[in-house]
Q: What sequence folds into this?
């Protein structure tokens, strides 16, 4: 997931052949015999550049078709932070959907107000959107809430900065996507991110939140349903795709991400995957098998407009307004 603390390719520090970056051991492509660009460890296939790029695109295409049936006229918002995952999602969705008449993409970027980190990323997103002719909309914490992540430093109490940032980001993305008339909101969550989220919620005992993990197949009130095109694409595959395509991406690490609990689960998932390739898919497939039962046990909550901001909320005051109020009070 973009914006979290990670190296561009977290699997590079694990032995995977003579070329650690690509996982290649002087083999030829399993499909055409050309020099391989990478080894897909969980399947054992060596793939050249062309077959690897096609492999990723086909996985994204299948996942989009599985998650949603796009009507003839669709406005699809894409959350683009500038990191590799969100750029890959934007560019692949553009390649897949731009030939469809009546389908329109718009890009949304959240400016959290993190000096030295967010401004360069905004420029990266702007360049990509200009290159492919996609509208780019920016919504800032400063404009939406009258604060920034930098201005609230030291006011987070016992919570991590990611707790506040995550809630505020989701609020902004949903509001902007709805204002733009988007039918769906695509995010850059990849296979690793999804496996981490599943384990995190299990370890926390938060089964209800586990039932609400995306992709969202059901429309609920004024919440724009989210889809996850990279759900079957690993972190390494996303990174390699961006490299082979020559995409300009923002690699800097958020200065506040070091305290995130997700970092521990990221390392856990990587270790499990290294010892037993395919573990991430096993976690994801197990969750998908349990998901229908979870959804029946925890049906969608009845939402109502927040009394302060009007965004959908379970309670009279939404979580975003509560957090913003707490920050401004401290």
A:
């Amino acid at each position: 997931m973009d914006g979290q603390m990670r190296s561009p390719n977290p699997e590079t520090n694990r032995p995977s052949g003579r070329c650690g970056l690509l996982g290649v051991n002087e083999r030829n492509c399993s499909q055409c015999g050309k020099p391989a660009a990478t080894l897909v460890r969980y399947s054992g296939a060596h793939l050249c550049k062309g077959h690897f790029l096609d492999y990723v695109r086909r996985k994204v295409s299948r996942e989009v078709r599985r998650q949603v049936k796009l009507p003839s006229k669709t406005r699809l918002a894409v959350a683009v932070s500038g990191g590799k995952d969100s750029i890959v999602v934007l560019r692949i969705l553009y390649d897949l959907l731009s030939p469809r008449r009546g389908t329109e993409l718009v890009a949304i970027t959240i400016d959290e107000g993190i000096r030295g980190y967010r401004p360069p990323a905004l420029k990266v997103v702007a360049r990509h959107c200009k290159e492919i002719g996609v509208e780019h909309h920016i919504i800032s914490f400063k404009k939406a809430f009258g604060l920034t992540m930098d201005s609230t430093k030291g006011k987070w109490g016992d919570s991590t900065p990611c707790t506040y940032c995550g809630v505020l980001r989701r609020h902004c993305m949903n509001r902007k996507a709805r204002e733009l008339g988007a039918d769906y909101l695509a995010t850059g969550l990849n296979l690793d991110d999804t496996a981490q989220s599943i384990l995190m919620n299990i370890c926390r005992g938060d089964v209800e939140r586990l039932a609400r993990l995306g992709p969202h197949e059901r429309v609920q009130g004024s919440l724009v349903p989210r889809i996850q095109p990279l759900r079957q694409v690993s972190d390494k595959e996303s990174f390699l795709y961006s490299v082979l395509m020559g995409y300009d991406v923002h690699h800097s690490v958020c200065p506040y991400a070091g305290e995130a609990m997700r970092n521990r689960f990221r390392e856990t998932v990587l270790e499990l995957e290294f010892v037993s390739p395919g573990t991430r898919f096993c976690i994801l497939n197990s969750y998908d098998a349990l998901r229908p039962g979870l959804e029946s046990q925890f049906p969608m909550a009845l939402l109502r407009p927040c009394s302060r901001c009007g965004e959908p909320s379970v309670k009279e005051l939404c979580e975003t307004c509560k957090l913003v109020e707490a920050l401004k009070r401290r």
Q: What stands out?
A: The chain has one domain: 60-301.
